[in-house]
Every structure is written in C-alpha cells, then in structure tokens.
Protein: DUF8009 domain-containing protein
Amino acid sequence: MGEDGTDESDPTRIRSLAVSAEDAVNAYAYGQENPGEAVLRVTSPFHGRMRARLHVYRVDDTQVTGAIHVPPEDVIADDVLAAYPHLEDEFDDLAADTLDELDDAEAERLRKRHAEAVEEWQERAEAAIVETVTLETDDGPHQVDVKRLG
Structure:
C-alpha cells in the first residue's frame, strides 16, 4: 500500500507519464524496421507521475510483471505516423526483393537515402508527442497526461 492507502500495483493511480520524445520515436522506428516489439514501459510501484522507458521485447511479460506497455504510436500524432518513410513506399518502383538484386553500390545508395528519410521523420516526430494517452488496465481504459521530457 502507498502512503495514501491505495494499492501501488494499481495503474489507475497514474495521472501523468513522463516520456522522452526520443524514446517514443526510436521505439516506433524500431518496430517498423526490426522483428520484435518496442514499447514505452511503465513498471510498478505506480505513482501519480511515472516515467515511461523504452523497452524492446520478443515475449510479452506484462501478465507476470504487472508492467504497462504503451505502444509508441499511441504517443505520436497520427498524421506524423502516417508519414513514416517505409522502404517499400519510398522506392515503390522497386519490388521488395529487387533490393537484393541491385549491385552493392546502388543498394547502399538506396539504404542511405532511406536512413536519411527516417532521420528526417524522427526529427519531425519528436515534435509531435500527444498531450494525453489512454492506458489499458484490468479495470478498463485510463486516460493520463503525457509530459514530454527533454
């Protein structure tokens, strides 16, 4: 029990999440480019203001740990998410398997161009953190404020 007599494992105690914009953006980009999941993770004991940290995983352990996973797309504005530069979108004139058939110099040039596009997107996305987010709890949805760090 907390000093206020409430259960510290109850995520509805949370009023705001402190989020690093860089963590949120990196988590989203990781999920677009890699296998596995990247989220913003909040662990108990829960308090009014909590820090959400970047967490990458392959197996969801929230049932065991009681942690809350906030998908990064929940804290980045929708219009910015829609503008993420997926490799296949950028080079829609190339089939996905065509990259493997390009000579090394051309493939490297395309990968570099894609990396630059992702970097530009990340800069834009860091400025597009939302003001509130809804946490999914055992008691149902719980809306909290998002406080941007940095």
Notes: The chain has two domains: 1-75+130-150, 77-128.
